[in-house]
Specification:
Elements: E1 3-9, E2 16-22, E3 28-33, H1 35-47, E4 58-66, H2 85-89, H3 92-96, E5 107-116, E6 121-128, H4 132-143
Parallel strand pairs: 4-5
Antiparallel strand pairs: 1-6, 2-3, 4-6
């Protein structure tokens, strides 16, 4: 399998680091807020898991769709307010680890998009990246120009 995709319905939530929790032994760790959204993604991904974990270099395309507020003027095309686009992804890639791919370190290319739409949610697509040798060949063929005829 070279690609996997999934749509998870619901208003996307950013995962933000909340306060720092301290244990009795002195160890500290961050407490995250809005982890229910990443848990929902993990459950949906587990239900639609690929037959085998994707291996090698991977590319992820994420499109976050938010509901358009009624008070927003029609001339506003994109949600340019908080939450930041990168905050949507903080726990999302970890939620897919072990379900879609072995480790999120396999992601070498990420494309993110935030927009308004009728159905709020996130569309996730993970696919294998072709080897650089194949990309170089395609680029060479694309850039090839016919030879000039000299007089």
């Amino acid at each position: 399998m070279t690609a996997w995709s999934l749509f998870v319905a619901g208003e996307p939530k950013s995962t933000q680091t909340g306060s720092i929790m301290r244990m009795a032994n002195g160890r500290a760790f961050p407490r995250y807020r809005n982890t229910d959204w990443s848990n929902r993604i993990a459950l949906a991904a587990a239900a639609a898991r690929p037959p085998a974990l994707l291996d090698g270099a991977l590319k992820a395309t994420l499109t976050f769709t938010r509901a358009r507020p009624r008070s927003l003027p029609k001339r506003v095309d994109y949600p340019t307010t908080r939450p930041d686009l990168e905050n949507y992804t903080k726990k999302l890639f970890d939620a897919l680890t072990g379900i879609v791919y072995r480790d999120d370190a396999q992601l070498v290319e990420i494309r993110l998009c935030k927009r308004f739409g009728d159905a709020p949610g996130v569309e996730i697509r993970v696919e294998k990246v072709p080897p650089l040798a194949a990309l170089s060949l395609v680029a060479a063929l694309y850039d090839a120009r016919p030879l000039e005829v000299l007089p």
